[in-house]
Give the backbone structure.
Amino acid sequence: MNRTEPRTLAGFMELLPNEQIQFNQIKAKIENTYQKYGFLPLDTPIIELSEVLLAKAGGETENQIYRFTKGETDLSLRFDLTVPLSKYVAKNYGNLSFPFRRYQIGKVYRGEKAQKGRFREFYQCDIDILGDGKLDIIHDAELPSIIYTIFKELGFNDFTICINNRKILNGLFESLGQKDCSVEILRIIDKIEKIGKEKVVEELTKLDVQKEKIETMMDFLAIDGSSKQKIEKLESLKIDNEVYNQGVEELKEVVKYIQLFGVPDTNFKIDLTIARGLDYYTGTVYETFLNDYREIGSVCSGGRYENLAEYYTNKKLPGVGVSIGLTRLFYKLNELNLIKMPQESIAQVLIIPMVENLEQPIKLATDLRSFGVRTEIYLGDKKLKAKFKYADKLKIPFVIVIGEDEVATNQVNVKNMQTGEEKKVLFEAGEILNYIK
Amino acid sequence: MNRTEPRTLAGFMELLPNEQIQFNQIKAKIENTYQKYGFLPLDTPIIELSEVLLAKAGGETENQIYRFTKGETDLSLRFDLTVPLSKYVAKNYGNLSFPFRRYQIGKVYRGEKAQKGRFREFYQCDIDILGDGKLDIIHDAELPSIIYTIFKELGFNDFTICINNRKILNGLFESLGQKDCSVEILRIIDKIEKIGKEKVVEELTKLDVQKEKIETMMDFLAIDGSSKQKIEKLESLKIDNEVYNQGVEELKEVVKYIQLFGVPDTNFKIDLTIARGLDYYTGTVYETFLNDYREIGSVCSGGRYENLAEYYTNKKLPGVGVSIGLTRLFYKLNELNLIKMPQESIAQVLIIPMVENLEQPIKLATDLRSFGVRTEIYLGDKKLKAKFKYADKLKIPFVIVIGEDEVATNQVNVKNMQTGEEKKVLFEAGEILNYIK
């Protein structure tokens, strides 16, 4: 027989079971936290009509997209969860309650250049809050408190949620007479972390921004101090621009509420260099960094947009959202040995029957399961040693061997695989449960 | 602005939040049950190299497949979870422990003719147990006990797991000199439920099967009685064929163990008409029916195969597995109003702050969440009535309004939205938890 090499595509994560369990643990923690804040689940298709998905044409995204025809139909795989959300909300507007709080955790597709740690299929974990016509600024402060909860849940302490407001930058550019190329300027400034201050100055110069104006921008970006001090400095600049002043006002509100939502000052800060390259953000923007591992990049980003679904509906739907790129995050945490959760098994108990009649082992397994204990029976015909090795490789914490003796005496040995300790208990699910708990 | 109609593709399920919650409940029950039996999670890519996915060429599947090129690469979307499993096991053989028990719940893609209740993107929920070289027949009996547990968990009592063994049919055909066209005969017989006995006879006649042989087949398929009686009749036929006898022996074993695994006689039976059209099954085959809704078709099917990954490796990997087509199942249950779970909300408590200072409401929400209560704060600026309507539409069971009075008296009213009852309790998360539990 001609055999095909069993390959997986480059840029597509495929984990071994032990890694997959950890990945799923992290995913579940994110999902549970989203639910704890009352977000509703969505699960939109991975394939959409290209016409719908690319309604807002252009940009880098289009080159990366997986697009093809099936029959006569022009199809694309979703490249994020925001565009499908826009379509969904426009389509189902009458059936939704606002503010509409939804989460979606799902795979998205981007045909990026293959590169270590870059994925073409990856999970995004998104939350968005959408208002009908308007959405109070306080929601911009609720999201950082959710980000905070998630990264604490994942075992991190030393991380910073960086906050800015695009109106401040836009207003500044406007006041400098640079409104027309503000998007380009933002894109350049957004890279300051990556390419450094000098390179930013260089690129701005190329864009024909005057030297003094660049200096003003750089001075502005260098504003330092606590959140309170930064806001005071922003106010003290007395920039006579409405957009600027609105941005400062919003930022002040958001900071005030973030504190009220219980995010410690050590875990968030105003960072005036953050712009988020995507041009649909219009107000608050977020990025989140693990402080000892800035090189990972932002682990949770997002912001406020004025009008989510304008390409599909005339309803005005402002919103605010954040996204965690889970696949890349997991890859990086795994690489850096930063996954803070213990390696868990699925089965908590392995029952190894060494008797002809399986009635008793099966009954025990059924009873343990009814108590919520994940229980596997080793049903194959192998040597005892091989069966223990199986439990060991799968990291199953408890093993119970059932032989004729155990059935006769109505007692079993429960072996703790981590300590090696064995404990004799009554051959009864409740007793065993008490011991392993 | 030119607007695009926000359409979703035909054959792609997209649910409203309330439906999505129910869908996810069912999915979680299936996943939890799989885990309770110790199955390990996998999450393979949705896109694979066409060369890999279609290694075993041909059949109906290939016309239905979503296949396209990206750059130079010939890609396909997975059409089931079995082929990706084969690839995975062949690729990771050295890193897996056998018997390898895995579950996978994920979307698969088939470009079927668009039709009500037919889906082009749908969830499959698969479990398989793979042996290294061999796999004891008792595993064929464990799977029905898992199917049984799942449908009980989903609130059903009146369902039947139908079991057969393809060796019995193959052996029968062999003994009738029809070995060469046994696959075709199986495909025809498999349709007996759908097209009726006469149509089957007609199609077999067209296949040039002699009249007496067709009669023998029909007599055989009409064998009736309890499982025990059926096996006795199968044995009493004294068909002198090794494959046949092996099949009867296996079926006998499986039935014995199914009973031992605690599946009541009312929930399973031998059904000699079941063949499963797919030609890779080689032994035990399963189909499951909701007895009052046979028209839904089988809600959980599968079987035993001799060699899973032969297209990728020379390792012999026999296995047994079943699959639930969740999307179609959900669609049908929903249509027939058969979803037995109460409609749940995500948020369990909605806090409505009617005070200037949000400190107290936020603290209460944080405390409730730390007790595991999913809690939402209504942060928008609306009339109280609109906020209650929001809770009502989202079916949030408890609402707590916090005004100046509540803060001053340190007492809050918890409103049970279902009964309309209000209860005054101490403004303290523990107290509130006690009440709503």
The mean pLDDT of chain A is 93. The CA atoms of residues 160 and 266 of chain A lie 7 Å apart. The first strand of chain A starts at residue 40 and ends at 41.
